[in-house]
Design a protein that fits this description.
The structure is a homodimer of 395-residue chains. Chain A is of the alpha+beta class and 395 residues long. In chain A, 40% of the residues lie in helices and 14% in strands. Chain A contains 14 helices and twelve strands. In chain A, helix 5 packs across helix 6 and helix 6 crosses helix 8. At the A-B interface, strand 2, strand 4, strand 6, strand 7 and helix 11 of A face strand 2, strand 4, strand 6, strand 7 and helix 11 of B.
Chain lengths: 395, 395
């Protein structure tokens, strides 16, 4: 029954230790439930600045250039602050190990470079530095192009794990632009009618600004769920709902121990899973196929650490001023309309993409930092000890 | 039990008359099943050129400018040839009625116009001419920009139903470009946790060229299924599978007579339907929000014919040569890899987006035209009679 721990080594430590009944049923609310649980259990709260400098210390300890360590710290703090605990502090040791093993460049002699460009597009080689450094470089380039040409479309090869896709698109949105980002990832998803994991969870993010700092921030995998949700069901000894996973024969399974691959968004063929498969392929076209990075089944597997990742990613910035005046008014109008819809029986509110994260950030602000489960804090202390750096302070 | 006929007036005549057992379970194969059924029942076959000139005659009979009638004919023939019978000849009377009623412009004094542009983007006003005329204008503009700037992104307002999204993206692909297209549509989909149809089936299409005329052609609604599939279950007296539809209280229903709204791709919140909802919203951002057309709940309803549609649409062309060399090699490599995957138990082949349509076209080529159900032919003859034009010849 513990098979999944073998499958995904540095994965969702926080989630696994939370034992949150009901989170699987929550969907939208899954970001908020752990936080409430943690705070009600009196867990430790870490100020964002404190977490940031700790991440920088850890990364510098393995030789990472300061500016690169800071970019990663920005990303990881943002992930946890937004409630995406699987992609924040939880993944720090993965980045540390990758740099330490020489699989990701320290960045001391490397920066991303532009291989080819037009006024509105660019092909970038990440030169194997940390994913957030590549992504930030690409999004900033896309923004520059969008200011000149109305749109900037940048695809990158030679990159590494870039964390939450939303970090890049919010960066665009904060400059009044629409931002989009995509990455390919290790093969975990099984195409419709097949039985072998072939494409990644290939996320899509779009951030679009409304009025008064309101926004829509979509950040979603093109699989039904992430592997972490299956781990959690396994740990709880509960069956998986329909539409999540396949066994090794390619049949849908509800039994976590039989897990052999993720179903695309939409689930089985009957419930239109081939659309999620098509979307994952679309993301791969924007990332690996356009950029010439590793792609599809050739992306190294999730547990493979003896070869460079060479991930493909894509970043788009769009200037709404190049289109009809009043973009943010219309955006806010649609957002507000959706939020104010009458709810289905048994529901209390209709959300728009980005609302759960917004609430999580508000709760963190109330606490003066990000709440963590004791196991997560323990692990961070152990990592600090191993690297010989000062741990973070817990409130 | 016949409620759905009240909901969607000019809808899927072909599908409704086919009585195809098993098609709902087919998913990918749903394009091929009706064709095999029709040919095995010895139905009429209509040559593509014959259908084309018939559509032009019908549209000219209600005053449509010849070039506009031809664009619509190209689109409708392509839809049926590709197996998307719901969007081909089946919809001709809708276009006829819209022009006749003055809801869509005849195009005699109107063409789409560019409202604003940069080297890589444009905002177009469709000036209420036929959707395919607007779409063709926009995609050709996007292609021109992509040749100069690597990418062209065009959003349009003042448009009408544009038929299959794939028609526009294939147009780009035939010039060696990647094509994307999107449209907003009448509210049919219910956002997660709500109960009222608020967004459309908002489709996404991407066409990307491989080698030797091979390609990936994704063309999908962001709802789990189209309304036609629910109609069909109703007609067969069979329950709907999970993930398709909601009743008026916002609860999932399996009973066609209880249908009150479509679920987004992914189904309920538990199976990640909020992702499909997010994707539909993304499409709306590209279409209505960028262009300033009607959007979301303000798009006229499917049965409303007394106001202009003012739909929003979006067309993107990307020059793969602006990125890494060898795009089509990598595309073909991914396509071939997926097609050659071992199949799940009980399956005979793994397909890629566009394969079902490819097979349908091959079968049509073998027949020397497009096969239609007798009811569809009868309806077309009645329409010809009503408009006083020559009907098409049936082989």
């Amino acid at each position: 029954m513990r098979l999944t721990l073998k499958l995904i080594t540095p994965y969702i430590r926080t989630l696994l230790t939370l034992q949150r009944p009901g989170v699987i049923q929550d969907g939208f609310a899954s970001i908020l439930t752990p936080l409430r649980k943690m705070t009600s259990q009196g867990q430790g709260v870490v100020a964002r600045e404190e977490l940031h400098s700790y991440v920088v210390r850890c990364m510098e300890a393995v030789g990472t250039k300061r500016g690169h360590a800071e970019a990663l710290a920005d990303l990881l703090v943002s992930a946890d602050y937004r409630g995406h605990y699987s992609h924040g502090l939880n993944r720090l040791d993965m980045y540390v190990n990758e740099v330490k093993a020489g699989m990701t460049s320290t960045g001391q002699d490397n920066e991303p470079t532009v291989v080819k460009e037009t006024i509105a597009t660019a092909l970038v080689d990440g030169n194997n530095v940390l994913g957030p450094v590549v992504g930030k470089f690409c999004m900033d380039l896309a923004l520059k192009k969008a200011k000149e040409a109305g749109i900037g479309w940048v695809s990158a090869r030679g990159s590494n794990h870039f964390g939450i896709a939303g970090w890049y698109t919010i960066r665009a949105m904060e400059q009044g632009m629409l931002g989009m980002s995509f990455t390919n990832t290790s093969p975990l998803m099984v195409p419709t009618r097949a039985k072998e994991p072939t494409l990644g969870t290939n996320p899509i993010s779009l951030a679009a600004p409304g009025n008064n700092n309101d926004a829509m921030v979509l950040d979603m995998a093109t699989t039904s769920v992430a592997l972490g949700k299956i781990e959690l069901q396994d740990r709880k000894g509960e069956p998986m709902p329909s539409g999540w996973a396949l066994d090794k024969s390619g049949k849908e399974t509800h039994e976590p121990s039989q897990y052999a691959g993720l179903l695309p968004l939409g689930g089985t063929e009957q419930s239109s899973g081939y659309k999620g498969y098509g979307l994952a392929m679309m993301v791969e076209v924007f990332c690996g196929i356009l950029s010439g990075s590793a792609f599809g089944p050739n992306v190294r597997s999730w547990k493979e650490f003896n070869k460079k990742a060479n991930l493909g990613q894509c970043f788009i910035a769009i200037d709404p001023n190049a289109f009809a005046d009043g973009f943010s008014d219309r955006m806010s109008s649609l957002i507000d309309h959706c939020r104010n819809l009458d709810t289905a029986e048994g529901e209390t509110e209709v959300l728009i993409p980005g609302d759960p994260e917004k609430k999580h950030m508000q709760e963190c602000d109330g606490l003066g930092g990000i709440p963590y489960h004791p196991n997560q804090i323990k692990f961070a202390n152990e990592l600090a000890d191993r690297l010989g750096v000062k741990p973070f302070e817990v409130k």
